[in-house]
## 1
Amino acid sequence: MARFDPKAAEELARLAAALADLRRRQGLSQAEAGAAVGMTSQAWGLYEAGRRPGLFRPDVQARLTGALDLTPEDLRLALARVGGEPDRAPATGGVEAQGRTFTAAAPPTLRRLQLDDDRLAPWAVSGVVIEYAPGRWPRRDQGCVVETADGRLMVRLYDGADADVVRLRGGAGLTEVETLRRADLRGVHAVVARIDP
């Protein structure tokens, strides 16, 4: 079996740490992330531990980030966050392929909000700070921040939407679906992380 040179091993470790960072920010366990792509939590853990060199392959990156409802570009942004950004000027026009690496556009603007109720329980309860991405639409059963036309912010679980309405639910034990007219909303934004104290 061929051995990695130290530089490749270091690059793999940074890429693995970025994958772990993305998973945690999405609020998923290794088992949940692995199940989304048909692998065990142990198999997913090998990628996060840097013990699978396949993590360099674009198809593997697409598969793993897809399980997190993200893209390989998000992995590149996470790589920059965990200290793996190569020494070069930042890109100004998007993402440009350069072999195995990507030069990323500016990271998305994230906002924080402290919860004042338990509507995202058991994932997050009153007093916990969440991070949300303005402009990123949530997937079903994902937490979201709803901005109403009058400027109020509500935190709910996204249930679905059609052309006229958005359907939301509370957290565990709260099964009633709340329907809001799209005309009464400024935006629906996906919750992407829980900031633990």
## 2
Amino acid sequence: MKNIGIITNNEKDVGFAYTNMLIESIRKFGGQAVIPTRSVTKGMEGLDNEVEEICSKCELIICLGGDGTFLKTARTAYLYNLPILGINLGSLGFLTDIEKGEIDKAVESIFQNNYIIEERMMLSSRIYKEGKLFAEDVAINDVSISRAGIPRILHLSTYIDDNFFDMFPGDGIVVATPTGSTAYSMSAGGPIAEPTSKLIIVTPICPHMLYSRSFVASEERRVKVSVSDGFEHKALVTVDGQKNYEITGGDYIEIEKAASKVKILKIHSKNFFTVLRNKIYDRKEE
């Protein structure tokens, strides 16, 4: 890989200190850094346009920021079949697993072909209002259906391949990929899955029932979540924590494996279970 695109969350990298370090490292190992035209926007605003700008000019995108920056970048980059590597300038960083002090070593590994590219499954979501398709989107991490700020229990009927599974009263439901199992779904009590697995995780959010548990379906299943007809307030469908859609009683959403996959570049030395242990349990490898 010679041409490497760079996307930076400038609120995480004030003054572009780590970005400049990355550029220098790419040049040192004989590569070309592809940088988008900088705008006056801050943080993740305008990142979509920046990714679009460089996608046709590079073979890999490296993003600097947190997992939110990674997701924002990946949601555009996957359309160009480009692999992505994340440098963690945030907190946990399950997707951005290269730390600040590892930049030079990571770039060296890339130019020595000492890496793998993992293809992760994505979810396709379709929202229906009054029986008609209202919106479509894809998710790398998850799709959540939740209360839109109203302190009322949300009743969600869940179906697997059109077969009724259960009614979940509570704050909502998260439908996650294995990649997203360490995000919102985990916070809601869902299981952690190896990110290269092929399955769909459904986790109730604060369920108002004693027996409620997460359940796991195969990648070939279709999950349908319907808002109770009696719910008059707005509910919110959120995709990857990036995009929101309002729905109400009688509306429903269908979620299944997407046809496309996102490509994540991984340095060989990075093992998911080691990362999990260090980040979740804050333990050092012995």
## 3
Amino acid sequence: MRLKDKVIIVTGSTTGIGRAIAKKAVSEGAKVVVHGLEEDLGAQVVLELGEENAVLLIEDISDDGAPDRLVELAIRKWGRLDSVVNNAAIVAASTITDTDKDFISRILGVNTIAPCLLIQAALPYLIESRGAVLNIGSINAWGGEHNLLAYSISKGALMTMTRNLGDSLFREKGVRVNQINPGWVLTENEVARKKTHGLSDDWHENLPKVYAPAGRLIYAEEIAVAVVYWLSDESGPISGQVVDLEQYPMIGRNVPKDANTIPHK
């Protein structure tokens, strides 16, 4: 097993990509701190994983002291910490005309500042274990869509933090920091969000090839499989890297002029 006996914090793991990561990590031998906002869903995840393999904290990651409480829970339960997966995020639409100070502060607080503070809180234990951090970004970090301004800014900042810490922490402390940027992933939250935009229940079954050359979106479980590599010893000394996980090249892509498109995010 590729993560045998490693203790991993996965934020935002009561649903979606985070839940898939937690489940895959345990299947590879890890112990996981499950975190999120939905107590009933979190309890279900822990039940599925087994109480010997998982422990739950329900709290907004941007609350004062929340990162410290996550770390303390891992240490209290298993006595060590090997990895942090910064997955929790708010995905919310905004443009230059409707992004006010409170809104962008909230997005940055959860998507960018909280991951930095969690790394800070975990650092003494990650140094001891020569551990790893994996930040879950987004292909929107490279610029983003016009109606995802604040979200794109937050993921771009996260990417810069990954590059910065991936160099300094590994060089000085032996802690690796990397990032993956998922593209469009089919999760229960994404299905529900698109329905609020007026799309039909089966919107994801007939996607334009411009957005899904495979004829479908990426599955959360496929992202989770990739995560294992970055948390395992197989990735060796690789640090400070950002890898896009999408069906097509995000930068330099040729979009057909006659593409039958629907809103991406």
